[in-house]
């Protein structure tokens, strides 16, 4: 399995947004509460900017999610995309 940087950032963004929504937080509230710039949170959730390792651990601590769990969820997002791509290829 090989994924582009863009694919990984988008998958991470989906996971991050999903966790935030699960906690019933707006982007602005989450950013303010956890000490992130709103623009940073927006860019991470959109997948337009990668997350440093330091910020990954800050995010996980803020959202009370283990980093290993976060990466597991990102892997799941990526595998779902693979499944969609395979089904699309089969239909061609």
List the helices and strands and how they pair.
Layout: H1 5-22, H2 27-34, H3 38-46, H4 53-63, H5 67-90
Helix pairs in contact: 1-3, 1-5, 2-3
Record keyword descriptors for this entry.
mainly alpha; single chain; 76% helix
Task: Walk me through the structure.
With 92 residues, this protein is mainly alpha-helical. The protein is built from five helices and no strands. Helix 1 packs across helix 3 (38-46), helix 1 crosses helix 5 and helix 2 (27-34) packs across helix 3.
From the N-terminal CA to the C-terminal CA, the straight-line distance is 22 Å
Global shape: globular
Task: Report the sheet-strand fraction.
Answer: under 5%
How many E strands? 0
Output the helix-strand order: HHHHH
Number of helices: 5
**Tell me about the biggest sheet?**
none
- The helicity comes to over 70%
Given the helix and strand composition, which structural class is it? mainly alpha
Q: Radius of gyration, rounded? A: 14 Å
Summarize the structure.
The protein is mainly alpha-helical and 92 residues long. The chain contains five helices and no strands.
